[in-house]
Design brief:
The structure holds three protein chains of three kinds. By secondary structure, chain A is an alpha+beta fold. Chain A has twelve helices and 14 strands. The mean pLDDT of chain A is 96. The chains are: A alpha+beta, B alpha+beta, C alpha+beta.
């Protein structure tokens, strides 16, 4: 790891001020991706601004039709929350499938979204549920948040404070894991919001994406068969050691079908 | 440049000046000399560095020491009773031959103890899934699964 | 007086320290004045080194020194030796290119050692390593052994312009050709035995200290055979006298072969410790382990089996190209030859076998023994051929095996080995029962109703363990002995310390060997401790590999015990004023036969150390004996595995739903420990079959599977709970009747798993599938057949 300066602000404002000053600085949430990258010297921030001491960024609130989760809330807290399990069981389940137990005890919602790893799980829930990402500056709709490979709408120094997930009528997440890293080779989040159906796919492409054909078909008939014949194009999907684009495209259909089955259970 | 980090480790308050880039596992091993916590990889997969921070199992290789500021840390050295009696989970690993070379063992035990707190009577599948973050190359996991199942029951009393 | 301990499930003596974090592994050793080494490694698979500039690194804070190949050459540090000379079919010795610990002029694989930076802290050394400026001229690289043999392939070494190290053969080619000419059926397979990266969870590490006071060195190293490490390093590389070098292999976190070898890092830190007169420690990061630990397997094989119309084997023909990597690792040359071709008879009476092996240099990490070492490759050849032959001939795969089992012993195979004993039918029957083969058809139907495919596969393996005897191995090219040494030190009050040259790094020798000694002496196991892994304590040792510890190391201990008891009888005879020939030793007591006179073991020991009433004119005082044991033959563990898989055709994901393993390890000392060895071996074998496969980029030679996020070693939820049992045909040529158990699982499992997968897919026209059978490759096989 290269040397850096360490900061531990106690408020979002202080953190934002520090971030504004340090062009080569990085915000540190749970660190489950960032610290790894720094260890391998793939990331070398001049300054690390640790959000760990900011109480305002933690916690889960269920309010009527939506679940608001603070950016520094650990995956394990979401997975284990009785309130989340009741309001959006698919979200709690998704959180329980991230990484491993130890990673879930440190990793955070905000960190995961800001990092926007193409194979991360949370982006599927954010996009699939049509959540709103709240920052210290504004509110960003899920459809506007993810911009590409490790790219988001966040501006330099902008800090995610919480994410608000509207509770769907029914939803489910199914993930086909990379056997080595346990990230998603393909993860599909299907949500019947009551006003329509959203299908979000993670792992398959450079960034999480929706599948309009599947949404339309499921809107007409929310049943596994409705998506069984719908294939996404392999063009532009990821190819790596573990799965070709063609295989990923196939898995999107299989996982979507299974997600619908799960949502109906 | 150096920063002061303070925390409680195995019930004892500790404090030191460290470089900010000091990992928690480095702080534990090199500064505190608690070498029971191991480093088996550099990508947070193997779990040999698993410790408890504020009661939760975490990977000490995946955070800088400063992230544990003011935290209550327990390492494998702090698990047995002061008189040396093994913790029920440690005893279960011994009884069921849940270890061979011993290198992954501290991380396995630390994760298992945390897991068992919320799973007093786990199924085989639950135990296997709970070990997603711990690699063992010796045991094939068979006896680790048996040990954790028994250890969880023993912890529940 | 004490219950027999051999055969008892005794809990391990070593566990307490490991469970409480009190183990001491090499990286845990911090010496006064400790410094830290970081290696600058080649980012290229093949390149000329035009220049190396150290200045910036040397000026970096905390950097103490930077050394390169030139420095080592100037200091006359030699190259890393290979311990086995193979003579080719052309009568010529294998090509042995120089293997400098730090590259000289050229790098030959990604991760090759270019320079070492020593710093006051690990981070200082890392910072310094980034500042070493190496100017490379990249060269074309070749990573595939078959391509490396082709005309125009880039040549790695001047002395091997065609990249061939040797072509070697075993067996009667003409007789095999004749057998094929009269065959009713020939089964043919061509496959790759996938390259594996061992990945013991403790990364390699070495920490060396030099003492000016007595011009001596101490090297702490994660190693499986400290005396061999010392012998190779002193005699061949550093030119030091052995008595000035102490090698300690403390607690070692798994080896699986990868810690047998003398590595560049061990040599460099030892040499550097003298230059700096300070201890120098290097600990591999996992990413370094991936690129620089010796890898395993990597064969390309064409295999054929000739049969008569009833499925009786007439002959076998095997051509293998073995990838050795960029340099010859310590035992690289004997793995795809002596430890491979000799096992091709398997459990069968195949009368004639011919095997030809070409070993090739490529721009990849050196390849050497990995759990099983040659024997998993041989078993894979035999058992995939046999299973495929059964399917092609529409014979039951168990039946075809039974028709060809060896049933009379000793049995001389056509590939040089003499099996002393075995009962292959017994293990197969037991495994079939345990795996409920009879109920398989019903389970397959039930799975089909759920849309899943089921398959059942067998593997009946044999292995040769306890490699020996030294003189025959020597005639075959071994440059080291293959004996083992043991010492029994009886203390004055009758407790015992056992010193063994067998190193333990997970195998539980501290318990198993104590069981043997306590059982034979009739002492409580608490009275016996085992010491290993330190050349200053152990008289000598060949170390631990090839499942040899109990068969060879255990026998050396028994031989020393025999001497202890013999001397004890002399002392007891004196004490009881009886004839030595009348003294019997029985479970802790020396008795005068036919009388009630007796002396406890402890009394005799005490007399030996306080020799007031003692035959000093005839007998030396003290009770300490050692023995060296060189076996007369290999041991031949064998067994039968039955694997049942379920495949999700929509995703291609394979789940092992049942794995039944029945092994014949001869006499079992501690069933609990033996089962643990099998569990671990099976899991590594399943890893080879399903998840593990080292991949280099064919163009750039970059290691693509360079971390645990890309190279998948099995996790707990990838494998099932296993069903195990044993059958015992005791080894006929060692006193314990033991054969060894450390590698069996890794030897038998890959074929069993792949036989199960191909069984599930056979009706779809899938005859063979490459390892690892990843979800995508299985899906693709199904999908392509369905599409066609």
């Amino acid at each position: 790891m290269h040397a850096f300066n360490y900061h531990r602000p106690s408020s979002v404002n202080d953190a934002a001020a520090l971030a504004a000053k340090q062009a080569e600085g990085k915000l540190l949430a749970g660190g489950q991706s960032l610290v790894q990258a720094m260890k391998l010297r793939l990331a070398s921030p001049s300054d690390l601004i640790d959000l760990g001491a900011i109480g305002d960024l933690k916690g889960i609130k269920v309010d009527g039709g939506s679940v608001s989760i603070g950016a520094m809330t650990r995956h394990a807290e979401v997975a284990g929350s009785a309130e989340v399990k009741k309001a959006i069981p698919a979200l709690a389940y998704l959180a329980s499938q991230i990484g491993d137990r130890q990673v879930r005890n440190m990793g955070t919602l905000g960190g995961s979204l800001a990092n926007a790893d193409p194979a991360a799980d949370y982006p599927a829930a954010v996009l699939g549920l049509g959540a709103t990402v709240v920052t210290n500056k504004r509110k960003i709709a899920a459809d506007d948040f993810f911009k590409g490979l490790y790219e988001t709408a966040l501006q330099p120094g902008e800090i995610i404070t919480q994410v608000s997930f509207p509770a769907p009528k029914r939803a489910a997440y199914v993930k086909f894991k990379n056997p080595a890293s346990r990230f998603a080779i393909v993860g599909v989040f299907v949500a019947d919001t009551g006003k329509g159906v959203r299908v979000a796919v993670t792992g398959a492409g450079p960034s999480v994406f929706r599948v309009a054909d599947m949404e339309k078909a499921l809107g007409a008939k929310f049943a596994p068969d409705a998506v069984a014949g719908i294939k996404v194009k392999a063009d532009g999907l990821n190819t790596d050691l573990h799965a070709s684009a063609e295989y990923r495209a196939h898995l999107v259909t299989v996982m979507a079908k299974r997600a619908v089955e799960a949502a109906l259970k | 440049m150096a920063v002061r980090v303070s925390m409680t480790v195995n019930g004892k308050a500790v404090s030191a000046e460290v470089e900010p880039r000091t990992l928690l596992v480095t702080f534990i091993r090199e500064h505190l000399g608690l070498t029971g916590t191991h480093v088996g990889c550099d990508t947070a997969q193997c779990g040999a560095c698993t410790i408890h921070m504020n009661g939760k199992a975490i990977k000490a290789c995946s955070m800088v020491a400063m992230q544990a500021q003011d935290a209550n840390v327990v390492t494998i050295e702090g698990v047995a009773k002061p008189d040396g009696t093994l913790h029920p989970m440690q005893a279960a690993f011994k009884e069921h031959h849940g270890l061979q070379c011993g290198f992954c063992t501290p991380g396995m035990v630390m994760n298992a103890i945390d897991f068992a707190k919320s799973h007093p009577n786990p199924s085989e599948q639950e135990v296997r899934e709970a070990l997603e973050g711990n690699l063992c190359r010796c045991t094939g996991y068979h006896n680790i699964v048996k040990a954790i199942t028994a250890g969880a029951k023993a912890m529940a009393g | 007086m004490n219950a027999p301990l051999i055969g008892a499930r005794i809990q391990r003596k070593e566990d307490y320290r490991f469970l409480t974090g009190s183990g001491q592994y090499t990286d845990d050793v911090v010496l006064p004045g400790q410094t830290y080494a970081v290696f600058v490694r080649s980012p290229h698979a093949h390149a000329k080194i035009k220049s190396i500039k150290k200045d910036k690194a040397l000026k970096a804070p905390g950097v103490l020194a930077v050394y390169t190949g030139e420095d080592l050459a100037a200091a006359k540090v030699g190259g890393l030796p290979c311990g086995w000379l193979i003579t080719g079919t052309d009568g010529q010795p294998m090509k042995e290119p120089p293997h400098p610990p730090l590259a000289q002029g050229k790098v030959r694989y990604v991760g090759d050692h270019v320079a070492v930076v020593v710093g006051e802290s690990i981070e200082a050394a890392r910072d310094g390593a980034e500042l070493v400026e190496v100017d490379y001229e990249a060269l074309p690289a070749v990573v595939d052994a078959t391509k490396a043999m082709q005309k125009g392939a880039p040549a790695l070494h001047d002395i091997a312009p065609d990249n061939k190290c040797y072509t070697w053969a075993l067996g009667d080619k003409a007789a095999v050709d004749a057998a094929f000419a009269k065959a009713a059926h020939v089964t043919k397979l061509e496959f790759v035995n996938n390259r594996l990266i061992p990945n013991a969870i403790e990364p390699r590490a070495a920490n060396a200290r030099y003492s000016r006071a007595d011009d001596s060195y101490t090297l702490y190293v994660a190693n499986q055979n400290p005396h061999v490490e010392r012998l190779l390093m002193t005699a061949f590389v550093l030119g030091l006298p052995e008595h000035k070098v102490r090698v300690v292999a403390p607690d070692v976190g798994g080896g699986f072969g990868s810690k047998i070898y003398l590595y560049a890092e061990d040599v460099v830190v030892t040499w550097a410790s003298r230059q700096l007169a300070r201890p120098v420690k290097w600990t591999a990061e996992r990413s370094e382990s991936f690129v620089s630990d010796a890898h395993g397997r990597d064969h390309h094989t064409l295999a054929e089996l000739a049969m008569d119309k009833d499925g009786r084997f007439l002959g076998m023909r095997v051509h293998t190209t073995a990838n050795l990597g960029a340099y010859l690792s310590t035992f690289a040359s004997c793995i795809p030859t002596i430890l491979y071709a000799t096992l091709l008879a398997g459990q069968y009476t195949t009368p004639v076998i011919y095997c030809e092996v070409t070993a090739v240099f490529t721009n990849t990490a050196p390849v050497d023994a990995y759990r099983g070492a040659g024997r998993p490759e041989a078993t894979y050849v035999v058992e995939r051929l046999v299973e495929t032959a059964a399917r092609e001939m529409k014979l039951d795969p168990a039946e075809i095996r039974r028709r060809n089992f060896i049933r009379t012993f000793p049995y001389q195979t056509p590939v040089a080995l003499m099996y002393d004993t075995g009962n292959y039918e017994a293990t197969l029957d037991a495994a079939m029962n345990m795996g409920d083969v009879a109920g398989f058809a019903r389970r397959k139907e039930e799975a089909a109703r759920r849309g899943k495919l089921r398959g059942l596969g067998y593997a009946c393996y044999i292995e040769a363990c306890g490699i020996a005897p030294s003189n025959i191995a020597g005639a075959l090219g071994a440059r080291a002995g293959l004996f083992e040494a043991g010492e029994i030190r009886v203390h004055p009050t009758g407790s015992v310390t056992v010193f063994t040259g067998s190193h333990a790094h997970g195998q539980g020798h501290e318990t198993t060997f104590a069981q043997v000694v306590a059982d034979r002496l009739g002492l409580p196991i608490e009275s016996v401790d085992v010491v290993h892994g330190d050349t200053s304590k152990i008289l000598f040792g060949m170390g631990t590999y090839g499942s040899r510890s109990i068969a060879v190391g255990g026998t050396a201990i028994v031989k020393a015990l025999d001497k202890i008891i013999a001397k004890g009888k002399k002392i007891a005879a004196h004490l009881m004023e009886a004839a030595e020939s009348d003294i019997e030793y029985d479970r802790g007591v020396f008795k005068v036969a036919g009388t009630d006179k007796q002396k406890a073991f402890g009394e005799v020991a005490f007399a030996a150390y306080v020799p007031h009433n003692y035959p000093l004119d005839k007998l030396e005082p003290g009770l300490n004996e050692n023995a060296f044991y060189d076996p007369t033959n290999f041991t031949f563990p064998a067994g039968s595995y039955v694997c049942e898989v379920e495949i999700d055709p929509d995703t291609g994901k394979t789940t092992i739903v049942k794995f039944s393993a029945v092994d014949d390890f001869g006499k079992v000392i501690n069933p609990m420990i033996v089962e643990g060895q099998v569990h671990g071996g099976l899991t590594q074998g399943i890893g080879q079959a399903l998840t593990e496969g080292c991949r280099y980029d064919p163009e750039t030679g970059q290691l693509v599977t360079g971390s645990f996020t890309d190279y998948c070693i099995p996790r707990a939820d990838d494998v099932p709970s296993y069903q195990l049992d044993t059958r015992e045909t005791p080894c006929t040529h060692n006193p314990l009747g033991v054969k060894g158990c450390g590698e069996a699982g890794a030897i038998g499992a890959p074929a069993a798993v792949m036989n199960a997968i191909t069984d599930a897919l056979w009706s779809m026209g899938v005859k063979d599938l490459a390892m690892p059978a990843t979800s995508e490759s299985v899906w693709r096989a199904i999908h392509m057949k369905r599409a066609a």
